[in-house]
Amino acid sequence: MGTSKVRWCKYRIFIAILIAASITAAGLLGFHKPYAKGCIMTYMYPTYIPVPLPNNATGGKYSLYLYHEGWKKIDHQLHLVKLSGVPVLFIPGNGGSYKQVRSIAAESDRAYNGGPLDAQYYHQSSFTPLEAESVEDFSSFSELLGRSKPDGRYANHLDWFTVDLEGEHSAMDGWILEEHSEYVVQAVHRILDRYRESLEMRSKHNDDKGEISPTNVILVGHSMGGFVARAAVVHRDIRPGSVRTVLTLSSPHRSPPLEVQPSFGRFFSKVNDAWIQGFKGSVSNGGHWSRPTLSDVVVVSIAGGSRDYQVRSRMASLDGIVPPTNGLTIGTTSMVNVFLSTEHQSILWCNQVAMQVSHTLLQLIDKKTGQLMINPHERMAVFVTNLRSALPSSFGWLPSIDSRIPLTFLRATRTGREDQAFGRDKGEIEVDESISSNKKMTAEKHRGTPIQDLFACPSHVFWLKEVPQSDLYIKSNIMTVLAMDGRRRVMDIERFAKDGDWFILATNLAPCVGVRVHLWPGSAKPGGFLDFEKAVEMSTKMTEIPTGPIQRQTEPGGQTEQAPPSGVLRFRPSDLHGFQFLTVSVAPRPSVRGTPPPTATMAVGQFFNPKKGKMAMSPLDLISTIYKKQEVLLEEGHAMFWNLSIAVSAGTLPVNLTVKTLSCGIQATVLAKDNPGPEELLKLCRGRCFPPVALVWDPPFGLEVLPNLDSEIVVVDSAPGIWGTSYGSEHTTIVLLVDPHCSYRASVEVSLSTASSRFVLVYGLQITGLTVAVILFALMRQARASERDVMVPSVVSCIEANLRSPFPLIFLAPGLSVIYHLLSTFGTETPPSLISFLGVSFVSYIFANGVVAALAIVSSIVFQIASFIQVFFKLRFQAYEGRPRAREPAQLRGCSLVIKKLRERPLLALVAGISVLLVFVHPSVGLIVLLLVHAWNCQTALCSHRLHKTLLWNAKKEDSGDESSNPAVFIDGDNHLETYRYRQGLLLLHLVTAIMLGPSLAAWVQISGLDRTPPSLLDLLLCFGIVLHGLYFSTLDPNITFVPLSSVFGSSTPEAGFSFIYGIFGLYCYYAGLAMAPYKAFYALALIGAVTAVLRFKDTQAGGLKADVFGKRRHPHTHRH
């Protein structure tokens, strides 16, 4: 029976280590996978002008610069005097340089001089119901946009300032972060004062008093600089109203990337709490309601997506911190004119991002004042329409206020003659039953308002009048446009839209200038589509999708492969209700000389049944693809809109999606070449059908578009297994736009390497907190063994006991997760999915056990080798130990006395020395010294145990007497072994805490000389408590009692002492790990140290055991191995 237990112990430990090693190795492999980089480099001619300090100010280690774009040499002082633009302050991130402003500043200069982007008539995103709130009707939203759109030229330029923060690592130390926020507040004040001084100076010389001095500064921060910007807004010294707009690029807001330092976590919580309270109004003593202090502040957070390994999208979310009316979180993958994921640093120089951000900031300038807009709703409207793609709202994934208006109501309000349109009395509007009550209320609210041109093309866009005689009447449910022939395609809605069919149009023609779409009522007759008063134009309802790279030619001089669609238009049954015909008008191609261009598919439209183009994958189906990929065959004439729903988020289990073209209806017999190969047929198919496009939607993450899809790993930057995830289900939706003229084979399989890298990346902080909990659980078992007067087990044996099933594994892993989920359900945070949360927490717990077991085995091997070498040499040279030593010199006798005094009180000496390091150097340095003390104690105890065993074995060889004649030898050896095992647990515990403070130590080392700041008082106190625990409780004391178990379970049950303390704080660290806040483990360890110090002090005062780091047990054990 004992042998079986040993084998199972090995199996459980081996499996835990194997899982941790496999995930780590596969994760590292996933990180090194190459991927296509779509960012374009930004070029510039930078000049950095130092902004001088005021006359009464003293210089510091930080500085402020003004950016100037251009290759000509300029006068710095004169340039500062001519300041007249809108001030923008750039704040670099962790280890960043002030020169990183050059990309976005240079692009904004070109944007101002070149003017607004060319007009696009695609559908723009609008407010969600939560974002609108006070802007409930669409006419108000349109009015906001109308005031913000530039008329040929921007009203003013942007003056870019940047702060030099000496490249300090603000992501590794909370104290550095606080210093940065204080300096940013000073920089904002200096900028505003500089504008006022420049305006006064120009007024004196030119007598020009018509200019307006800016009253606020736009803050743009990258990485930790974005959080510094938010911290500056709520700083106690900031001038009210001096910052009203904050834009962050790949910045953490919910939690820091390395949330392992207590002062770091406290500062984040402090700033976020201030923001939450800043958007809450208050009632004064007189009963007057006061506006929230941050009601005029707008914050936009742009996340890099799945390629950003430093700051995940969840960290960059403003959910729960800034209300939707004042905050917008968006990823670069769903950003207009970008649609790609960026790395943490490339988001700064990526030209697509820099250009779109520059034009958006320039649109924030008021046309009348030349300064930043005052109304926060106007600024939010600019950000929403210029940054967020309309694809999610067009496909119904994201609610939108314009989607609440039925299209039938638009047609009725346009004509003003409902009785003619529908054959009913005036004022009666037919709304489909599927339309919600909110839509009906919105329709009634908008009766008579000029919203009939909501999706119509502007009147100034030229369009040739259609000729009814040239109309093409489509006889099937698929419509194809092969050329810009200037003709109109007509489709009968009642004929093709049966049984709830939808209509979708994919085209590479631009709306309004290349193609126009109308819906016609039943009163319109074939051949008489000229009365446009009866029709509702839907051209600008088309949504833009990225086209990807230009398609290559199949052969030199031949036809190129089909270009991917650049726009998509979708109508639901409720949109088509009340209409008889759908027309697609195509603009004529300008006449050209010579041979006409080759035929190309320019638009494909189809009526389809969404039930036939739908596929769902359960968690079991998804897991089964690890062994065998799941395939689906799309035959010719299939639905162009194919919806694939994955039950598990692609952020947890990324999938490899492959779409291969099989055929396109071309028979080999009609080709000139005999027996053409498959590759030759595929070349022809690529010239006939547009390449597949995948739209990936994940509610917490957002949208990602994969154009020119062949084989791609679908991964979203979401974490559904974490507490506080954004709204929405954890299902990932993949929509395939595939040409119905071709047949395809689509396959899905889980990518294990990408899933492993995502797991380590997203849940690394959770594993860290659980690792501390696992060690505390091991110490709990060791303390309980001492209380029960049995042999103290090793750390590996304790881990094996924690992995036993069903108890305590089921209790500690999913059991506590269920309780945690119930608490989150009734708490303030958004609860995660139960299945994902249990699965992730269980794997994280096994991973943490594997890590601790590996550390314990490696450290045991090292100590065993070191003790063997030490005992070997000690026995070999023990003859020299009895020789008389040389007399000590007189000049060293004073030092010997000091050393003698310290040896009498070694514990006090260690506490004093480590405290000096904690206060005057760095807390992690003190923990490193504590680790050395633990290592020395482990080595000493193990050497003593091995020496006793060796001497006993030698004695047995010389004298074959009864080995039990001297039991004290066994007891002393066992005590040394127990001391080694317990101190090894302390070593592992404090090793993990020292590693958690490693980033802070690296940041401290990077700062040179007198510029180094003292450590945070909070970190110092908590580390001092950890030191007290390591020194004052370096040996187990079974006589300490906290819970009298004998009164409950009988006198045979030993009382619970420090096993209870370790168990309670182990559970606390377990919860802290699940909450992605491992820094809270410092509070638990410090409290253990405080309890230990108090008990030791009482023991000393009572005249009991001396408080010695090398103290012994109060009662001897009689047990043996």
How do you describe this structure in short?
The protein is α+β, with helices and mostly antiparallel strands and 1121 residues long. It has 34 helices and 29 strands. Strand 25 and strand 26 form a beta hairpin.
What does this structure look like?
With about 1100 residues, the protein is an alpha+beta fold. It has four domains: about 45-280 and about 290-390, Alpha/Beta hydrolase fold, catalytic domain (Rossmann fold, 3-Layer(aba) Sandwich), CATH 3.40.50.1820; about 470-545 and about 565-590 and about 600-610, Jelly Rolls; about 620-665 and about 680-695 and about 710-750; about 760-880 and about 900-955 and about 970-1105, no CATH class. The chain has an eight-stranded mixed β-sheet with strand order 1-2-4-3-5-6-9-10, sandwiched between helices. It has a five-stranded mixed β-sheet with strand order 11-13-19-15-16. The protein has a five-stranded antiparallel β-sheet with strand order 12-20-14-18-17. Its main location: endoplasmic reticulum.
The level 1 CATH classification of the largest domain is Alpha Beta
Write down the CATH topology of the largest domain.
Answer: Rossmann fold
Q: Helices and strands: which structural class?
A: alpha+beta
Record field, number of beta strands: 29
Helix content: 40-55%
Strand composition percent:
5-15%
User: How many strands, which pairing sense, and closed or not: the largest β-sheet?
Assistant: 8 strands, mixed
Strand order of the largest sheet: 1-2-4-3-5-6-9-10
Rg from alpha-carbon coordinates: 36 Å
Overall mean pLDDT score? 79
Give the number of domains: 4
CATH superfamily of the largest domain: Alpha/Beta hydrolase fold, catalytic domain
Number of helices: 34
Q: Sum up the overall morphology in one term.
A: globular
